[in-house]
Amino acid sequence: MRKNNLLRSRKIKLIATIFIITFLLPFLVSDQVRMLAGISEEENNNGLTINAKKPLDTVNITEIGYWDDNYGQINDVSIVGNYAYLALGNEGFLVFDVTNASIPVIETSWNDYTCNYIYAAGDKIYCSNNSAIYVLDASDINNLNLATNWSASNVRDIYGQGDLIYYTRNNGFYIYNISDLLNPSYVDHHSDNDYYELQIESGYAYVQETGIVQCRVFNVTDPTNIIYLYFIQLPNMNDFYYANNYIYVANTDTVWLFNFTDKLAVPVNTDVYANNNTGINDIQVAGNYLYIEEGDDIVLVDISNKTNVQYHSMFDNDFFINDIIVDGDIVFAYDTNTFEIIDAADTMNLVILWYDQIYGHTFGFFIDGSYAYVADHSNLEILDISDPANPVKIGKFFDDGGSIIQVCVKDDYAYILEAGFGLKILDVSDPTNIIEMGNVSLIGFTLWDLFVTEEFAFVSLVGDGLAIIDIYYPDYPQLTTIYHEVPVIFSAAMVDTYLLLAAFDYFQIIDLANPFNQE
Prior knowledge:
This protein is mainly β.
């Protein structure tokens, strides 16, 4: 949608549109599919499996020809071989021979009915308007014949594949079988909200939805049984965590456990842990225990039996905890003034090993091996925590641009979010000599959370979605796109080939295991 608007705003002519769709269609349907697909797995420090991708190729678009439209608005375009099919609304559709793309030639036309959306495949042309669907026999391109049609109100987009027709409308996503052209038969549908643009690829349907404004993903390998990977809606969600095929989702007073072993099926709720008090702010999983940060307490829940989780113990702290990270038997906790290291080897008796109150305003921290990276207002402090009871400060980076609100470390680089500016990349290969590399401005956005893969940094923007930044070259990072479909994202993660987006009321699961061909 953004690409089409951009094309219209710049008044690029038809053949440029045809050229773009022909060669760039795998990249236009879904920005997040293009950028997050496929690739190698690794574990980050929070236990999330994240994926990396090759750096993006540069695409230079050049206009090579155009056709001056005297018929009115072009609503939709479909390409098959050397032919381009143009939906012209009340004027029906035109078919162009684009064998010579610089000089397109009108091959034939059809204007018996209004054609708002069009899709061509094999020897068939599929059209839709606000009241019906039409299938034309195009085995002889110069002698088109209406093969079948049926009533369907408010059709928004259409796609044909063999004997199946897929289409969206104002109340759902539908599949019809036309093997018997005289008697098209309903196969299955999914009805939830107002659906618009549609793409089918290798057994998956990608559908744009308005209202909630998101891209839904359906498994249509078996067209009689549409499987939908969906968002799980929970009230006032504060945090989520993935570990060992389970997703843990928390709001202010409850944690839900979902079995995500079968990635092609709907996650199954296996149990719920209800806290006696309210105020769950953060959750972490380590081994058989769920760590819940609640105010000034850390509650441990035994999750060894996923269908019968049980309260295990509680650690009463002396200060209100903003966030925790669990690394093996060590728990790191902080508030705005205190950084604390806790020994959790004995889960029934947590013991404070070390704490420091000299930090002015601790907003975030990250654990990488034997180092702790603490974002302290305008400073990034690096501590050697190989001896957790006696951490040693070994490095410091002073950022005179503003407040450092989050830090993430990958290999020899630290990635920091600076409030009021954006992302900065630091070379921390020598912790005693930190060097600033590149940066990306996100001025105008409210920054919230950050995590990185080998080639991408993901920054959640409160109210605006997820910024995806190409960091393949640390000294020259580039903002790739902003995924707007889920505007309120508190955090995001990759699990195998799945993108999890945690928002205020739900987290959305998008299956990227079967993306369009990237090569």
